[in-house]
Please model this.
Amino acid sequence: MEVEISRRKFLQGTVAMSVVGATALSTTNLLSNEHGHAGTKGHAPKSITTKTGTGKAENIPFLCGICVNKCAGFARVEDGVVTKLNPNPYFPKSRNMLCARGNAGIQTMYDPDRLKYPMIRIGQRGDGKFKRVTWDEAYEAILNGTDKFKGLKQILDEEKDNRATIGYCNGEGLSKEGFEVLVGEKIGTPNYVDEISICLETTLGGYVNTIGTYGEADLNNADYLIIAGANRAEAIITPDTMDLFKRSKGRGLKTIVLDPRFTNTSAKADRWYAINPGTDLAFVLALTYVVMNENLYDNDFLTKHGVGFEDYKNHILSKKYTPEWAEKITNIPAKEIYKTAREFMAARSPIYYQGRRSVFSKNDFQLRRAMAIFQALSGNLDKKGGIVYGKKLALPKEEINVPMYAQVEPRFDGKGIAIPAGKTGSWIQFRNMVLDGTAPYPVRAMLMRKHNPMSGVPNAKKTEAFLKKMDLNVMIDILPSDTTMFCDVILPEASYLERTSPVATYGGLEPAIVMRKQAAKPLFETREPEVIYKELAEKLSKPLWEITKKYDEDVQDDTDGMSEAEIEEYYEENGFNLADAWEKPVYEANKEMVEAKFGEEAWKTLDEKGVYYPDMDKYHKQLNPNEFQYYPENKKNYTTQGDKLKVTINFKNLAKKGIDPMPAWKDEWNFSVPEGQFRLVTGRHAQFTQSGTTNNLMLRDLIPTNYIWINKRVAEQKNIAFGDMVEVKSNIGAVKIKAYPTEKIAPNQIFMLHGFGGSSEEMEIAYGNGANDALIIEDKIEPVYGAAVMHETNVEIRKV
Amino acid sequence: MARYGMALDYKNCINCKACEVACKEENGVLLGADKHRIWVGQNEVKGEWPLLDIASAAFLPSQCQHCDDAPCQEVCPTHATYYDENHVVRVNSDKCILCSYCMNACPYDARYVDDRTMTVDKCTFCSDTRLARGETTTACQNTCPTKVRIFGDLDDPNSEISEVLRTREHFSLKSHLGTKPKLFYLT
Model:
């Protein structure tokens, strides 16, 4: 396939471009047809890849922003152009590596389809007609609206200053918190949703509520690993991925993989068990049964740290969660379960990997509790080779002057949910209640940043209807995503290579603080997120204050009889000046904070190397061309808890919320698929980060599209060959996708990669490529947090 | 003056393709699956679900083997393919006439046509980028998450690669052809 595309399009705005095998270019208003860019500060290279030179270059430390990991690197910059991203050998978390996506970050920065200017909608919602405006005009449109949509001022006036009528969502990253400060704290709405409730919420909740932390698996020193439903070869987590696969395959870390499909992680396993989707809990309960029945547990450890161990032992034995029982549910032979349980407890340093990932089934919270307890049965917690708690270098908490609004109503999406997450909410429940009118008050605006619910949240049709119901949608992002196309005001952000970000701290065995520095000037008219927050806050502050004064009785009581000057003072003192949270540019704020906390030398190190930790100059050294020492062995934080360590096995308070206080199986969770149907499983791979990278030319080169995996023998019966187009249909929708017949999946299941099938015509590479699983995954939630469950949808398939 | 080679701890490889991307970005290689200087080979797993042969799904990183007795160099009618001072097999694009003899002669399928110059291109061990700047690693080695690759001077007894080849068992690809590859797969 010919995919070399000139940078001309990028430099000249919309110029026709053809990609063989991709859809033809649509005519568009989005990027406008204007040539020349007076506002351009940075500039793009002339070809897609640039051979690095031998002359002058700068190496700027950056933190990768292409996924959640935040690996460290150095950007090679030649004549203002980023020509190469190299790994940073100083950061203990990323251990001197960048993955394929990290290397391809250049292509995201120089993506020809990037959002280049602020824009406002001039057509109907979703038809893609926008006009280029100045930044001030864009902020003005958010405040006052246009003839096509309402602004925040009118909405809040009509809603009598009930700030909760503004919703907002946010994607993860180093500038995430600033957006939460702007919309959540300063503008003052509680209605926030983000990636947590469509990702790993039950994993975090299950572990924190059981052993007090999610922890870090010390895979450098463990000798036995059960890794279930976590695909570390393809869903890379640093440093776990690097540590794990250097020691698998008979080199010290025996690796047992459970996954419904045969992944690249399975390919590195000593044993792979093709477990039925959603039945991991039965497997863990059966492992626990063997350990309890044969008294294989660490009695001393449990006596000292366990709460309710005897209750759990009685519970497991009396429920008869035997391997024979689990075999029928899980598809794993009973003798294999016996063997695995005994090997685990006989190992010196066994780990049942916590496995951050999306929530797959309704029992996921109980699964995580059972896994954490099982780990504790071995006693291998808070010690070398186990799940460790580590340490974190504390950064001073920024003081935010948070205004109090009397008219704001509480959030509503916790209805029917056992432990509603106070801050991050439930995406599905929030959206659905707004959509079906069961929310107690209207939500009329969505302020969004770096988040694409059209792809990420199950049931995209509902998300589309939800977005269309709004009076105002605002997006801050770098690419015209599917969600962006339903917005009224679009604010183009500088990509992660074009900005300095707030200092971050990463804890664990080898803690460090890190800083992303701007490698190149922002392209076109894009601006750094913190600049956008400040400018938008300045624009909104006084007009919204007028509305508060009009409706807020507390404010009226407080300011009664005050002079103009006194009211102004009150406004400043009580945080109603929305812009006061961004007094200094990020780089200066970082410098001040790090110097105050760690000293001037620390700042110099951080500024130059992108990484700092105490005694780094003494500890850090190169061991060989590939490996570095970050901390000496005796300084690693293997054991930090000591007597504080508590394992909550019988969690009695959960019962008050209607949740089993100890993990138990319910028959309704048994795996079954109606005849003629398939269970849809979804997942990730190492060359894409959800929908965020589907327009990346380099990565598209590695994975041209997503396929539906279907068992080879089933495909033969259905006369489906590789590359055939099939329709996949669930209760809520249907998609068309190419088939990949393989023995890597069970006859009653199918698999597709998440993140494909973009609907935004402005993303040339992503548009129409493959299928979007959010169109067919049913919007079901689990009962504890209201998190989306991804593997509970059955589908039919037919060749088309 | 060195004699560069590479050892591959190939069991570490997870087929993440970081090396392929780093290579393309460092060396300005064209996009396209047929324009890879380096790649990772993977076979469809053998067996029937759920009884699959895990060993049959191994990942094998490959590329130009920088043979000491390179068939590509032997057949080149214009001497475009040559050994540089570090024993790296290189192509002089000014001399290449795209007769494609070398592409046919290479037992490792390590050569491709660069559509910009219409000459044959291949792995250079980053000789004209990183090594030319005095760096000591190739782009693929440096970026690898699981550190599969060890690049270095085979003539230097103290180099990491020499040390590793002395102490660990290894094999070469298609060694029976007598090409004497300078890539070594560690077992």
About this structure: Residues 18-27 of chain B form the longest helix (10 residues). Chain B has a mean pLDDT of 96. Helices of chain B lie at 18-27, 71-75, 101-105, 139-143, 160-167. Chain B has one domain: 4-70+123-186.
